[in-house]
Amino acid sequence: MEKKKENIMKPLEEMNLIDDFLFTEVMTDEENGQKACRIILETVLKRKLGEIRFECQKVVPGVSETSHGIRLDTFIRELTDDGDNSIPGISIYDIEPDKRSANRDSLPKRARYYGDLMDVQLLEKSVDYEMLPEQVTIFILSYDPFGKDAMYYEARTMLITHPDTAYNDGVRRIFLYADGKLPEDSTEDDLRIQKLLKYIARSTDDNITDESTVALDKIVRQTKSKKEVGVKYMKSWEREKELIEDVREEERKNTEAERRRADEAEKRAESAEKQIKSAEKQINSLNKKLARYIAKYGDVI
What we know:
6-stranded mixed β-sheet, elongated
């Protein structure tokens, strides 16, 4: 029988940019994070960006104390010359790498909730709805979110009854499958997206294939070489191992408790069975006595 594989620590040098820890560390560095965001956004959006400002691991609280908050991997604002974030033309971007295929079914509603909470944070009191910025959420995925084996999926709001009529709420949700196929009418820009995704999913020398991946790989190598990043990774792994052990210990306790309850239930069942058999013997004995009485004295009315 094959033994269950233990959770083995992946060396930092072998981590890919899609891995949560490495992506966060790259984005935490202000200079490198901004460079990496620009490379990803300009490649995916197929255009040059203006001035950008970004936050890594931005926490967005829920609308009330009991509501579910979110943590955005990256939150990027593309600014105009005057830096005003509340006028039309400003774009808000969120880049979310994800390699947990168990999230597949909830991905559309996750995107919906993320976007809604971002809007709540961006629209200040007494500001007109028209001032909401354009919002683009980009999911970079190691799994196929919709099962069509495509590299690029994009969702926008539309009028189902009148698909030719524009319905512009300013929201775009882009889902990128790293191993998906290019569209039949793919362009050079699409090829650049594919190369970028391959590098993010598997950050190896084989996938350094153009100017963007060269620049991104330089950032990744700088991040991995930092002593403090290595120390943080070791500590995070130790915490993860402790959590795994805590879960396993809790599972063992639950299993033992279930086993005790099962044993007690079995004992109660055995005791009840013995009582039933004893009662049956008593009833049989009484029936025999009654039969002898009737045989000797006749029926009693």
